[in-house]
Structure formats: C-alpha cells, structure tokens
Amino acid sequence: MDYRSQPTAKEEYTANVDQTLRELQERVQQHENELEKLRSEQSQPPESAAGQARLIQVALKEVTESDPFLPSPGSLLPTLLAFRKTHQTIQESKSYLASQRVSHEQLSRQLEADEARLKDQKLLGDALTARILSLRDEVDAGTHVTPGEGAEELLQELRAKKKSYDRETSKLMKVLLRFIDNHLAPMLAAEELGGPVVGDLIGIDGDDLAAGFNAQGKLRKPKDSDDKEDKRQRRIDEIWGQATNGGTGRQDEIAAAAAEMKQLTEELLNTLAEAQGNNSASYVQLSRESAAARFLVRSKVAQFHPRDATRLRLVDFGRDLEP
Fold first, then answer.
1. Whole-prediction pTM
2. d(CA 266, CA 268)
3. Is residue 282 part of a domain?
4. Is 69 contained in some domain?
C-alpha cells in the first residue's frame, strides 16, 4: 500500500507544481495584455498638476478596491515563497555569523588581556598594601626605640646580611671549583692542545688528551711508546709551565687547565673587588691568551681591553643594580 501511495503523492505534487506554474503564467499574460491595451490607447497624461493628482487618485482607488491576487488552495506558491524566504534568512544569518566571528575572536583576546592586566594590578595592589603595613609597623616600632638602639639594630642586620652573603659566596665558590674540576677543565685542556673549543666535545678523559689532536682538531688514536710520558710532560710544561701536581698521572693536562682557570678566576674577582667600580683598574694582565680567558669572554662573563688583548676584566653585573 505504501509503494502505491508514493507515486500518487509524487504525481499530486507534480500536478500542483504544474497548476501553480499555469496560474503564474496566466497572471503574467493578463498583466501583459493590460499593459499592451494601455499602450494602444496612447492617451496623454494631463499637463496640469491638478489633472495629474486626479489621475493618481483614480489609479490608487482602482488598485485599492481591486481584488488581490490569491493562489488557488492547492497551489505551491506560498510554500515556495516561504522556502525562498527561509533560505534567504539562513544565508544572511551565515554571512552575519562569519562577519562577527573575527570580531568575537578579537574581543575574546582583548578580554583575556584585560583579565591578565587586572590580575597583575591586584597582585601589585596586594604587594603595595603589605609593604605599607610593614612600613607602618616599622614606624610604630621605631617610635619606642632610641637613636642609639636603632643604629645598633641596623648594624646587627647588616652584619647578619654580610654573614649570609659570605656563606652563599662560599657555597657558590665551592660549586664553581667542582664544576671546573669535573667538567670544564678537560674541555679547556682539549682546546689548549689544538682540539675543539669548549662545549663542542664533551666526555674527554686523560687518555684522549694524552693522544692529542690532529691538524683538523680530531682526536688521534693512542700510541704506545717508551717516551710517550716524557713527550706528554714536555707538552704540558710548554703550555702551562711546571705541572701543578708532582706526578705525571693521567690527569696532568686536566689538573693544569683547572689550576690555570682557578687562578685566573681568583685574580679577576680580587681585582674587581679592589677596583671598587673603577673599570680601568679592574683589568688583569695576561701572560698569554689562554683557553680559559677565551671561554670567559665567549660566555660574556669577561671582556678584553678595547685596545689591549692581553688585559682582561670581569663584567661588573652588580654595578647596574647599585642605587
């Protein structure tokens, strides 16, 4: 029964479409006939304003009193018009949403930025409030303290800070010395012996340094010979002077490079402290351009004199922080 009803519904829909099309065609033909009739009469419109007004009034009355065009009950014209209006509304809505999407994204980003700034302002306000309360407490406490007692308290605070700074400095120096011995010294020794610069070759040991490097900076294969240790010691003496340790063990090159780096670092720190902010007096005279000096310069920790490459000084980072 459903299979027989489907073609019937289709035929009914087709018949309604044909009927609607005929109605529209008849209506169009009717308007064309009326227009052709008006053209054939060739009546001239009145030239006076009153005549033109009367003509417009008669035409308006005729149009108003005439029956409007209404489709037949089975016509699909209302449905088609509704579909067209719905489709037009959907397309306009999609276009509007697409045009507003960019604006919505911009407003969202602006809202996020404003929220972040508001959060920062709240944190800053809380910090200022806490600081104001702290200052008030200090003022209230200071009103009950004599000038001598206040000076003594301040002196004790300064002494405590100095002890704390000294402890932290000692810890940092121990860490620095361990870093030089365990990591930096082998790479410095490799650079002094013609190998790659510090940082390009990691994991070097004494056997690698004893074998040396070729002209391209590559490690040579170790060779066994009777005078190997003598040649090795002479090479160490030529570069670093007399070995810092009495033996000729496998760590001689590393120990010599470590001792040179420690000595240079100590001289730079002491000279900078003695200069008291005078840049011209904070330079250290170098006996040679060593790998240790080049490493400090590449690390932006030290810098050569602009006109004398044999003079080196530390960069005074703390000077920019002083009031």
1. 0.48
2. 5
3. yes
4. no
